[in-house]
Structure formats: structure tokens, C-alpha cells
Amino acid sequence: MAQFGFDNDIHSILKLDMPITNGPMARWQRKASSSNAPAPNGLSPGKSANVSLSSSKTPGKTPGKNKKQTPSKMGGDRFIPTRNSKQMDVASFLLTKENEPEDANDAGVSSENQKAWSVSLNGYNIEDAKILHLGGKPLNAPEGYQNNLKVLYSHVATPASIKKTRYISSTPERILDAPDLRNDFYLNLLDWSSRNLLAVALHNSVYLWDATHGDITHLMKMESDEDHICSLSWTKEGRYLAIGTSDGNVQLWDVENQKRLRCMASHVARVGSLSWNDYILSSGARSGQIHNHDVRLENHHICTLTGHSQEVCGLKWSPDGRYLASGGNDNLVFVWPCVSQASGRNIQPVHSWSEHQGAVKALAWCPWQPNILASGGGTSDRHIRIWNVNSGSCISALDTQSQISSLMFAPNYKELVSAHGFAQNNIAIWKYPSLSKVAELNGHEDRVLNLTLSPDCSTIASVAGDETIRLWKSFEVDPVKKKVKERTIKSTSSVIHQSIR
């Protein structure tokens, strides 16, 4: 019985029916007391005075890990695990002192002494405590490098911007006088040879201007003052010049010897347009007829192309010699086949287009696309139209808001040049095939009548009713293309030179 009495005493002692006054507080009690505590350093009830509040909190350090904590000091650096707390304090001090003026007492202290004092006092070099520290000497910047933090604006050239921007001068490079020039829209009075000779017809005379040396030559003059020159056209190699006159004749001149080779009579009205295709010379007259002449033959007239009802004022052979384009005062554009491909003398046009509403004098074949033809209408039309000869369709049309007197393709930049009369009296350069305007060349005081291109395709020559010839250097010459062009232009004995009678 005594044993049972002892067990009952033990159980009564171990019962938890009464609160434990000297034990630790429960966690929820500690949280409640800490939130209601008047001061952060206050002690919880029931705790001894020598026990701090931070000692009862959850440990901030993971057991078994030896990582340093982020300092609790306000304004400290970001956490960098390689520094101790002492270095963080020094780094914060250096940040606050960085913008302060230097002490006069520190000016005479060398860096070596400062380093020695720092190692002695702190145990490490104070430079190692800087927030941003660069070890070793900085590397030299690469060539052409720009520090964007030290400049207001920095631009690195992209591949597109490295390309040199083309400059088109708005003023002519040279102005030549052209007195007694006939201000007639339907005539073609200017042409530039492959030997760099510029021919211009002034009333009843023809003058040659050597663009290389600047010399001027009076080639010929008609016998009657009532007659006048209506058209000019150089052969491909630039040795012979065809001249259409108001009396219906076509004269052929050897320019080098300044000698007339022959006078071919076949038209009954003035010859306002001429175009060469090797030894075939085509002439368009006011009667509306087009005559093809074989200059090798004594009986030069080989066929007549009939289609226009009014004066033929535009005539151009395609670069490949397959087609002849003609434009007339009847607002029509015809495309004729090559003479060698035609059978008999009744030749029919390949295409006939009537979309223009004005006289069609301006015609130009595309040098890099022989099947493309550009045509321009007069005052009542004012449109540039691009034709595909293979399909016979109009690819595009552009209203220039001005009379079009001449068209010309510039191969250096694949552009189209147009000359205008009323009301702009200027020259326009268009990007092909978009026909977006590149530039305008203003300066003529009257309508521009004709355009021609220099042998190197870099300069435009324009003649206008103000009796001036203006040279516009609008196309930069590619040196590689220039050498190829010069080799092609070199004088050689041609078929025409050997065969003209």
C-alpha cells in the first residue's frame, strides 16, 4: 500500500493543472507582448532582466552555414559576401566622404603612406573597401571607341549610312550661249556624240562644242537664210552626223574632215526627227511619214512607215535594234519592227498606243531593259507613261503637271530624266521604276526643248527657248564603269566608215 501512495504523490506533482510561474512564455504570448510593448528594448513579463528580446527570436542564420548577414545599418552597401562587417562600415564612410572637399592636411600625404597607415590601423588596404574597385590598370579602349557617358550624342555608322550620300547640284556646271535658236517644240536641235562633241543647230547653222577642250567649230550653214535645221543625230561611234533640214533633205557629214558626204532627198516636208540603227537611218517628217535609209546604198530609201496622220516629232531605235518607236502630233505612239525582220514595203506596227492626250515628242528606251519604253505627252497630256513592248501594256503613268518635251534614261543610277515646258520650264529626275522624284533642276527662263546625255552618262545637256545650253553634272560616275565605257568608245573602223558612199 505504501508503494501506491508514493506513486500518487509523484503523479500529483507532475500534473499541469496549475500555471508554471518560472517557465518560459508561450510563443503567442511573446508575440502579443512584443506588439504591445511601448519600446523595442522592453522585456517580456516573466523573463529575467538579463535576457534580450533578440535572443528569443528565430535564428537568422541557417545551422551549419557560415554565411555573413546583410548589415542592418541604414545606408550600407549591397550584400557582397567577400567583405566583413568592418569593411562595410569603412565603405559607407568613404561614400559619404567622396563628395566632400579635400582636407588641406591630407594633400601632402602620399598614397604610399596612406596605404601603410591603412594596413596598420585596419589590417587591410582602405582602397579594397571601396564599393566599386577596379583591380589592376584599366585596359586601353579599342580604336574608334566612344564613351557614351562623356558625350551628349554618339552615332555609330550603320552599313547603310556608310555609303556616301549622292549630291545633286541645283545649279548648272556650265552655261553656253545659243543665239538664234528656234523655239519650236517639235524640233530636235541638240545631240551629244560618243566622242564628247556636242552638236547644236542655231537657225540654219550647225555648231560643234568640244566638251573636252572647250573648242567651238562651225560645221555647216544652209545656203538659203529662209531654210533652217530641224533635227540632229550622231552615229553610234560618233564620227558622222545626220542633219534634217526644213526643205525635206537629210544631209550626212563627216565631222572629222568637216565634209558633207551626201544629201538624201526623199521627204516633201521638213524632217523634225532622226534616229540611227547601225547603217540604217530613220527620218520622220511633217507629212507623218517615216523613211528608212540604208546609207551604204546609192538608192538609200528602202521603205516607208505609214501610220501617223500628223508630224512625226519623236523617233528612237531601241538599244538592241529590234524596234523603232515613233511619236507624233496626232497623240499616237507606234512601235515598228526592225527593217531586216519586215517583209516587203507594207510594214505594220507591232503596237499602236493612243492613251496620250497630247503630242508625243519625248521618247526613251531603257538601256538596261530593252523592252521598256518611256513616252511623254505635251501640254494637253503632261503624263509620263512606261510601256512593256513585249506585252504591249502600260506599266505605269505619272502626271507631271507640265508639258513634257524630252525624256532620257540615266543608267548610272537607273533614273529617268524629263524636260518640261509650260508651266514649270525645268528638268526633273525620277527614280525608276517607282517614278518618285529625286530632284528638280531649275534655271531656264523658257521652256526646255531637248535633253541629251554625255558619253560617260554623268552630265545632262539641256537647251531651252531662252537661247542657252546648260550642263548639269547630276550623275556621279562609277570609276569601274567609266573604264569599261572608255574601252568601248575607243575609235575603231566601223561598218559605216567603210561602206558610206
TrEMBL record:
SMART domains attached here? WD40
The terms under GO molecular function for this entry are:
anaphase-promoting complex binding; ubiquitin ligase activator activity
- Which example biological process does GO assign this protein? cell division
Concerning CDD domains, the annotation shows: WD40 (cd00200)
Among InterPro entries, the record links this protein to: Cdc20/Fizzy, Quinoprotein_ADH-like_sf, WD40/YVTN_repeat-like_dom_sf, WD40_CDC20-Fz, WD40_repeat_CS, WD40_rpt
Q: Which residues form the CDC20/Fizzy WD40 domain?
A: 176-472
Gene Ontology CC annotation, any one:
anaphase-promoting complex
Q: Which family does it belong to?
A: Belongs to the WD repeat CDC20/Fizzy family.
Q: What name goes with this protein?
A: Cell division cycle protein 20 homolog
* Protein source organism: Betta splendens (Siamese fighting fish)
Q: Which gene encodes it?
A: cdc20
